[in-house]
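Postdoc handover notes: sequence design on the structure in folder B. Input tokens:
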């Protein structure tokens, strides 16, 4: 007999569902204060459905997206539990709505942090321009780059720079695995 979706789950059921050892879930409780399973007599843990969703989101960010524990903590602090839960389910509309709502709440934008930085999968590196031989000035000051008889316009340069940032992010993730 299968449990109702609203039923509480034991740590062994959650660990099996997430394909993680139980000690990892206990460790995450020490690192993420948002994880608060109900504890019964004898210290047995019972996870609510929203706890399981949050754990799925944390697992997805740590293992599938290559986030560090500190990075997930920052996402939780910035965007809240619902955002991380939405990551696991792939609910992009909810994630974008939460990011938009959070950006409206802050009267002054944080220096160096944009909404794009808070969406999963975006490169962490900021454009510097040093890779393409132009200074850090505005786009209007940036000259067209000539390569032989052809030149690279602003749109092409932006696409190349975006591809470079993606490659740098891939390199960062690979370096973490090594």
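Designed sequence:
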């Amino acid at each position: 007999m299968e449990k109702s979706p609203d039923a509480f789950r034991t740590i062994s059921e959650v660990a099996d569902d997430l394909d993680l050892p139980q000690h990892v879930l206990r460790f995450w409780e020490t690192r993420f204060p948002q994880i608060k399973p109900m504890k019964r007599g004898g210290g047995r843990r019972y996870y609510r459905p929203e706890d399981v969703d949050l754990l799925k989101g944390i697992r997805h960010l740590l293992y599938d997206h290559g986030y560090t524990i500190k990075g997930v903590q920052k996402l939780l602090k910035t965007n809240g539990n619902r955002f991380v839960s939405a990551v696991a389910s792939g609910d992009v509309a909810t994630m974008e709505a939460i990011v938009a709502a959070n950006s409206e709440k802050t009267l002054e934008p944080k220096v160096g942090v944009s909404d794009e930085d808070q969406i999963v999968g975006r490169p962490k590196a900021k454009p510097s321009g040093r890779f393409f031989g132009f200074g850090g000035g505005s786009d209007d000051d940036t000259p067209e780059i000539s390569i032989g008889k052809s030149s690279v316009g602003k749109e092409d340069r932006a696409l190349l720079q975006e591809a470079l940032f993606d490659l740098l992010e891939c390199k960062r993730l690979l370096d973490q695995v090594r």
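Context for whoever picks this up: The first helix runs from residue 11 to 18. Don't rerun without checking with the PI first.
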